[in-house]
Amino acid sequence: MNGLSLMISVVGRGRLPELLQLMKERKVSVNLISLGRGTAQGEVQDMFGMENVEKAVCFSLVTGETWKQLKKDLRSKFKIDVPGTGIAFKMPLSSIGGKRELMFLTDGQGFERGEEESMKNTERELLLVISNEGYNELVMDAAKSAGARGGTILRARGTGMKQAEHFFGVSLESAKDILFIVTRTEEKNRIMQAIMEKAGMNSPAKSIVFSLPVTDTAGLTLVDAYAREEADQAAREAEKAPEGTEQRSAE
Predict the structure, then answer these.
(1) Which of 107, 137, 152, 240 has the greatest count of CB atoms below 10 A from its CB?
(2) Does the pLDDT value for residue 222 go beyond 80?
(3) Cα dist. 204→98, 139, 157, 170 in Å?
């Protein structure tokens, strides 16, 4: 999207309230929070001051201007540059499913919708689907109906969910599932549309979906081969269909 990014912050769990306060001051009210654990060992710990401690991972949508302000706050107030404090980074969004969903996720940041961004030579996109906890099968079934082949689920807690009634007329649960789906770029819109229709705001899942460009991948060779085989099989069956129809007509 025009100037809109997904910001991911990883900090010690004890400092999560401080991070959320900075977000609140910069009008970032909708966040998704998941818990994790640091895994850095040996030389990495010595070099970066990263410890094997409990972490909080925060997902937020930010505009370019909000990111600039938050980056200053994280350095001056949060002291994020001090080794062992945490990290924060952002990735550009390429699209989001629904105007109301966009307004909800960027409320207070003064974002105006522009042209969807596109990155040249990106064969894949990462779809992030945020849904009420416990409905990941409904979401995945919707995605698979449009060609998706699998995904990864992360449990999270949402903040700023009370304001959902202003945008959607319904309340949203704070317990969330985040589904990650890597798909081919040409399949992205079809899968997003299927999720919005079958597992969107009019369903119990209350899903919101957006996408990010993937610049490179590893480990998807067999998936590509399987997809090509499926496509070839479908093409062969399509070629045979008219012949069978003519033969039955002659009989």
Answers:
(1) 107
(2) no
(3) 17, 10, 17, 11
